[in-house]
Design the sequence.
């Protein structure tokens, strides 16, 4: 692996909107609400933003979403584009923003996402739209949904490591306990292992409560050049970033138990000069229980086949060895498409600033954030640290 | 509600044409010997355009499977529960297929299956599928 220059970019503003079922919300309205809040968080104004990165929206599909948003919010940036990498979108947007400010192309880059996919479309419509990541000739005609594709990974994992139902369920239960501490989380009711185990089967071995939520919501992150960050309220350092891309379609994945997160996280750790063992808090893409299990192990936080046992033992809960998804993650905080992965970044910044209230990990100095898109296809890892 | 049919393109047409004749064909790179499942204009290993279609034996092994109870579209919701599987076929590639026929929900990883062809739609378009041998 070639040695990369150290990052100098800062995350200077983070915000997310209300979460869950938001009747009357629109994709652009959520983008705007998140942007206004992130600007306020940073202590910046719209005129300070000279770069804009948008993701994608399912309720408002458009070839030029970033231009649509700049018109909506009246931004006239010198750099403007949209990025689409499924669940990895938010982390990849941030990595691009880092490159833009470190190259000198921009001083303050706004990364903004939002979708009203719960109230703006039917649940069936959302499930069908998501299934379009399957190959149109070789996967979709066989009835591949996104949960079914992840179920193929889960079945292979259970076969290889022989873990029990509770070890999958523990992932959902841990997320819910964290969400209960976050006033904005979509699902805050207590959840038991038995409730997960007894929820209906979606695609064996995955059950309803192994799956993330569909929510309305938006999030924005502002990335600034080191010198430009001096004028902002409470910047957070970007210490490492990395990506890993092995396939798009699950039928073409080189492995069903090891994925690109191994490469992406190794790159990010190497650049930051830290190891997995030094991370204080991790915010990792958790579209399904199996997603988080395989990623925790592939990244090196736990041995193969051990992450479920660790979750059962409380290791990924607040007060445990490595608190994971302290906001509740996609499983319980909410999942609004490209914004879903951005909520992990927002939470990491809150943790590093000591602003996570009841969810605060004591002494959180190093955070790891990870996004994955497709069927564990596109991976982007970030290591963030205190100023 | 009828299940969707694939729309073959220039890369994939020989695969689907062969399926209509009850044959499973895979692309073989004449330059490096790699076989590939999703048909392409070049080899996905060495990028050579020298690709040949070869017949695969109609056998495979289950790499993974899921019994799907919640289909992605109305047509598939009418078909639940159905079995989605990744099959490592004898020709050396991994395909996504359905396990059809008796005992399909009892299939196991590592089990050997036979590749079969199932007509779909009014014109009886033949879809490669997998069927248990021991059931």
Sequence:
């Amino acid at each position: 692996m070639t040695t990369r220059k150290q990052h100098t970019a800062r995350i200077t503003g983070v915000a997310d909107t209300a979460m869950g079922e938001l009747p009357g919300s629109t994709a652009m309205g959520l983008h705007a609400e998140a942007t206004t809040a992130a600007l306020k968080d940073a202590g910046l104004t719209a005129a300070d933003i000279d770069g804009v990165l948008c993701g994608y929206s399912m309720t408002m599909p458009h070839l030029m979403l970033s231009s649509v948003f700049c018109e909506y919010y009246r931004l006239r940036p010198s750099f403007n584009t949209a990025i689409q990498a499924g669940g990895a979108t938010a982390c990849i947007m941030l990595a691009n923003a880092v490159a833009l400010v470190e190259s000198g192309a921009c001083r303050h880059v706004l990364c903004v996402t939002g979708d009203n996919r719960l109230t703006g479309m039917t649940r069936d419509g959302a499930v069908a739209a998501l299934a379009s990541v399957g190959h149109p000739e070789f996967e979709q005609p066989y009835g591949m949904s996104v949960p079914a594709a992840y179920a193929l990974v889960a079945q292979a994992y259970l076969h290889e490591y022989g873990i029990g139902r509770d070890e999958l369920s523990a992932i959902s239960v841990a997320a819910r306990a964290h969400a209960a501490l976050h006033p904005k989380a979509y699902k805050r009711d207590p959840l038991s292992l038995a409730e997960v185990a007894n929820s209906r089967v979606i695609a064996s071995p995955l059950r309803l409560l192994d799956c993330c939520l569909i929510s309305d919501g938006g999030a924005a992150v502002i990335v600034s050049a080191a010198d430009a960050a001096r004028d902002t309220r409470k910047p957070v350092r970007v210490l490492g970033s990395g990506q890993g891309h092995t396939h798009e379609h699950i039928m073409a994945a080189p492995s069903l138990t090891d994925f690109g997160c191994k490469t992406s996280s190794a790159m990010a750790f190497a650049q930051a000069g830290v190891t997995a063992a030094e991370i204080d808090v991790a915010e990792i893409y958790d579209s399904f229980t199996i997603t988080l299990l395989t990623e925790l192990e592939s990244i090196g936080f736990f041995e193969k086949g051990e992450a479920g046992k660790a979750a059962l033992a409380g290791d990924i809960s607040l007060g445990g060895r490595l608190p994971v998804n302290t906001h509740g993650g996609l499983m319980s905080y909410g999942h609004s498409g490209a914004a879903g992965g951005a909520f992990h970044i927002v939470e990491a910044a809150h943790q590093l600033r000591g602003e996570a209230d009841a969810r605060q990990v004591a002494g959180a100095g190093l955070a790891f954030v990870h996004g994955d898109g497709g069927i564990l296809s596109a991976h982007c890892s970030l290591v963030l640290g205190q100023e | 509600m009828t299940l969707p049919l694939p729309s073959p393109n220039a890369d994939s047409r020989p695969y689907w044409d062969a399926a209509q004749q009850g044959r499973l064909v895979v692309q073989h790179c004449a330059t490096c010997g790699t076989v590939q499942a999703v048909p392409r204009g070049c080899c996905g290993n060495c990028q050579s355009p020298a690709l040949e279609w070869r017949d695969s034996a109609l056998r495979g092994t289950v790499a993974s499977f899921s019994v799907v109870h919640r289909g992605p579209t109305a047509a598939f919701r009418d078909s639940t529960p159905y079995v989605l599987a990744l099959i490592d076929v004898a020709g050396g590639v991994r395909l996504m297929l359905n396990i059809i026929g008796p005992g399909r929900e009892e299939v196991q990883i590592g089990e050997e299956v036979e590749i079969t062809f199932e007509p779909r739609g009014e014109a009886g378009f033949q879809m490669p599928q997998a069927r248990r041998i021991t059931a």
